[in-house]
Amino acid sequence: MSxxxxxxxxxxxxxxxxxxxxxxxxxxxxxxxxxxxxxxIDRSIYTETSIYAQEQRRIFARSWLFLAHTSQxxxxxxxxxxxMGEDPIIVTMDKTKTIRAYLNSCRHRGVRLCxxxxxxxxxxxxxxxxxxxxLAGALQSVPNEKAYPEDFDRKQWGLIEVPNVQSYKGLxxxxxxxxxxxxxENLGDMRYYMDAMLDxxxxxxEVMGGVMKWTLEGNWKLAAEQFATDWYHVNMSHASAxxxxxxxxxxxxxxxxxxxxxQFGSENGHGAGFPTHPKSRFDxxxxxxxxxxxxxxxxxxxxxxxxxxxTGHATVFPxxxxxxxxxxxxxxxxxGPDKMEVWAWVLVDKSMPDEVKDAQxxxxxxxxxxxxxxxxxxxxxxxxxxxxxxxxxxxxxxLNFQMGIxxxxxxxxxxxxxxxxxxxxAGRAFYRHWSKQMNTPAWHERTEQA
Length: 450
Known about the structure:
Helices cover 26% and strands 23% of the residues. It has helices at 49-60, 183-187, 190-198, 220-229, 234-237, 239-245, 254-257, 285-290, 293-300, 302-306, 354-368, 375-387, 425-438, 443-449, and strands spanning 34-35, 40-41, 65-69, 78-84, 87-93, 99-103, 118-120, 123-125, 132-134, 139-141, 164-168, 171-175, 205-217, 261-265, 271-275, 313-316, 320-323, 328-334, 339-349, 399-400, 417-420. Residues 2-9 have low confidence and may be disordered. Helix 4 (220-229) crosses helix 13. It is α+β, with helices and mostly antiparallel strands. It is built from 14 helices and 21 strands. A hairpin with a 2-residue loop joins strand 4 and strand 5. It holds the Pfam family Rieske.
């Protein structure tokens, strides 16, 4: 894997050869459920199982999805298991030190091939019947192979490889569409906002410790959309947490609570919001004191240090989000229309001294860890939305995303279309792109039709 290289397994040619029942291919026109121009959303997009199934086909099977961080792979054989949508994935480094990703399913009977969360290996061997695959995905060993037909060819039964694996400044993404727009092209202007977290250190970033995982009752879009667009909830939902963190114990001063700021929304569904008040840096003191802000201004520019590097929030469509100040990166893995798994890492600059890295880790846990004082508030809100969304009348009442309509513009300071911080602009962009993708045939459908 490199920033602009993809890899395809020969075994992938077998995908889609068998026709699928209509129940697996029926698609719903969602254009009437999302009015991004008027700022109205039908809440059935969070509850309908048929819409969720369509998301697996047209959102997760065609989008760039976060897989892992490059620092998780140091030598050939290192691996990490994750998901793309609900598809289980093995990410590994092969003998040429290339990062590759495979469907975590044995080609024989479909058992989960690798059951460990992470580790190192020379071969992936199925515990059911013993089929073994090497780091390049090739089938190497088949017990009692002589019992198979003469035309049995191991080359046709290698692991199904994710054909498009690319990285951006340490973040590894995969895409099932081998002809997809490149990762960097898809990110577009979003790269500027990501760089405020990823490019502070010439040596780059690394993840610290393991992966924190927890389950929430709620649709994955509720979390992804909030991290793209919603600063509005901060003063209300997180009032108690802000009181705990403030020096006086009474919460931030009015000028900080009502901070100015900007919100970026991408035509590809990405979004970022950030305050621009100089004191909007609710971070660990050792981290704050470690940074040479003048050097950062020279490296990133004044606007980036005053904006996206502050206490902001962001989502890379569809389900990768991050918080630049406390170094939280996370994926909202869908587990049905009513449930998600949150996987979160602590991201630090490589050059940080160990004591500063540890301060960042502890601050991350206190604020946005599984029981963090901010994280718990967010999970409660999403669960409450989901808990009442199945009622008939409830599902007929649209949700309001009208804040900041018409305020989007090129502001001359920050790349792309931006709005005020208190706005739903990035949320509207998120659902506009979601709707477009849901109503457009994906690569696998074009193949089937051909």
